[in-house]
Amino acid sequence: MIDSRRIVPFFSLSEPAMSEKKMPAYGAASDSNDYDFSQQVGHLLRRAYQRHTALFQQIIPDTQLTAAQFVVLCAVRDSGACSLSEIVKRTAIDQATVRGVIDRLKVRKLIGVRHDEADRRKVLVSLMPAGLDLVQSMVPFAFDITEKTFAGFNPAERLALVYLLQKMCQADEAEDT
Fold first, then answer.
1. Cβ(102)–Cβ(88) under 8 Å?
2. Among 148, 169, 172, CA closest to 158
3. CA 149 – CA 165 distance, rounded (Å)
4. In this predicted model, which residue has the larger pLDDT, 104 or 34?
């Protein structure tokens, strides 16, 4: 269980701002006895992701569809015919996992794979009609999953969380360039 006395809120409308002395020293060198893994950002992100994935599995009616497969289908829908490396970039899923996802979606005839006519070494992935139908039918459930992931958050907290996660991802992207 999370000790709410140790969590620093993004902001609070009813409480005065916390002083610097009361804020936890994330990343600061301190006594190793003060390290509580359950309060670390990586652990909390992993738990939030596990919760979101569990909701996906509970709500999505297609029991064969994983969250990674849905993301890949959406990326291909949005990009049109695209290469594996483009899918990797768009989805932030590693190449080996994307290859496995593509293979499973191909077996279900949700996507098609062909060689690029201009560069035969390049493989292009396209959404098949069944894939487009599946994505369109799953989108309302995906919105529901997002709503349930945000359960208990007020609009300002939702906005703050999405903003901070995007900022974290942009910092990662900046390091890659």
1. no
2. 148
3. 14
4. 104
